[in-house]
Specification:
With 102 residues, this protein is mainly α. It has a domain at 40-102. It is built from four helices and two strands; from the N terminus they run ααββαα. It has a two-stranded antiparallel sheet. Strand 1 (46-49) and strand 2 (54-57) form a beta hairpin.
Length: 102
């Protein structure tokens, strides 16, 4: 009887812990959803420009301008969130000189 209780308890514990112990598996569908969420968050992100004392919405238009900035700099692309303050300031200085063409 004690052995049966031990086995039953072990199975219950294993079934509860199994999902936690499994590593997350990369799956193209999940990756696509993650990219969509990242895009949605980027649409809502508001960034403060310390030097010019204004805010910028990080929209698709801003993303295109940011990529154009890196092309003009002839340097490898770096995500904005990984830039230090000096590099961010340099980008916003460039951005104020290069507004969107409407």
């Amino acid at each position: 009887m004690a052995m049966r209780n031990l086995i039953a308890t072990s199975l219950v514990l294993f079934s509860l812990l199994f999902p936690v112990l499994l590593p997350a598996r990369a799956n193209p569908q999940n990756e696509h959803r993650r990219e969509e969420r990242r895009g949605e968050n980027a649409e809502r992100q508001r960034i403060y420009d310390r030097e010019h004392h204004d805010y910028h919405q990080w929209t698709q238009s801003e993303n295109r301008a940011y990529r154009r900035y890196w092309l003009e700099q002839h340097r490898a692309y770096r995500d904005y969130s990984r830039l230090n303050r000096r590099e961010q300031s340099h980008y916003w200085n460039w951005r104020h000189i290069h507004p969107d063409q409407r």
